[in-house]
Amino acid sequence: MPKISNKGLEMPESPIRKLVPFAEEATRKGRKIYQLNIGQPDIKTPQGALDAVKNHDIEVLSYSHSAGFESYREKLAGYYQKSSLPVNKEDIIITTGGSEALLFTMGSITDPGDEVIIPEPFYANYNGFATASGVSIKPIQASIDDGFALPPIAEFEKLITEKTKAILICNPGNPTGYLYTKEEVQQLADLALKHDLFIVSDEVYREFAYDGVKHHSIMSIPELAENAIMVDSVSKRYSMCGARVGCLVSKNKEVMATAMKFAQARLSPPTFAQIASEAALETPQEYFDEVIEQYTYRRDLLVDGLEKIEGVKVAKPKGAFYCIAELPVEDADDFARWLLESFEDNNETIMVAPAAGFYSTPNTGKNQVRIAYVLKKENLERAIKILDKALKQYKQQN
Ligand SMILES: Cc1ncc(COP(=O)(O)O)c(C=O)c1O
Q1: Which one of 6, 60, 109, 193 is separated from 133 by 20 to 30 angstroms, measured CA to CA?
Q2: What is the 8-class DSSP label of residue 361?
Q3: d(Cα 79, Cα 158) in Å, to the nearest integer?
Q4: Residue 177 Cβ < 6 Å to ligand 1
Q5: What does the record give as EC number (predicted)?
Q6: Whose alpha carbon is nearest atom 7 of ligand 1?
């Protein structure tokens, strides 16, 4: 049989999805599963976005411009300008999700063998995008004890070699929920300027900042114009994960011209989804105010609940809708599988994402899980109770 590529063999499985077959089996047995493992919000998509697709008058569903609709890019630039970010339509390429923006970014700024420094734990699919691009990730460990704040800049500096092309951050963080302070973003910017590196900032959760704390975008630092690349998406902002629309944003003309060649190769982002995304920009502020209130409430409910369970340690998230919890187990991978295969309480169980897949340092985060607080109050309360019971039972059996 012809051989699969080494790259293909090295491509990591998604730690978020690898438990799916066990969940399917549990569902077949009639078990109800509370899904704390994925970032699929249950918040309603803005009606205006859905109506725009229903009420279109398209007769030919054609390709769009490779950079995306001009009208959409113009309005999207306006959205960033409202947050005082100096973004114009020519600084934006619309992509098929933030995922494609990350792939275009890797493709545009790295060669096989190059290195990208990323604070860990990080969004697990960065591993996949790096493998697909032949890039080596140099992780730098953030700690649950300080809520996953930016590790000291001296630690980053130690990892910089002539192969280092970029530092990649996720702000607010998935899976940590950490929101970088203005000082931390500035420190990274200074480092990038000193060593002539790119800073790639994944800001797909940029609207999800709690407790009145402001989000600081990488695009807000004028001196960093040539070094900054922002990745964004409509998936979480408008609860439109299935639209598959995101964007790559940079003031660096060479980066944009290069990314544009990748964009041309795949022709265009999806047309209907751009119609929905453009309409979503009209979403009133009250929608976000309600969503933020809802997530703040859920976060507090989850963190308070977790803190009451013996042996559980949790870093209170300041943004996004995830947290990392340290559990009194040795191997969270085994525990997560056991929850689906062998545990039930009133025929119900929970699904969590083992956190080891969010680290690239081997044997790290083995007793941690990522929990997404994307469930309604009653379901979240029930899920926390199930976790408490399951931990007790698991401990007795092991
Ligand atoms: C941090 C982060 N970046 C990027 C993405 C990709 O999102 P999408 O391709 O749906 O825009 C996700 C999705 O969960 C994410 O959590």
Answers
A1: 193
A2: S
A3: 38
A4: no
A5: 2.6.1.-
A6: 98
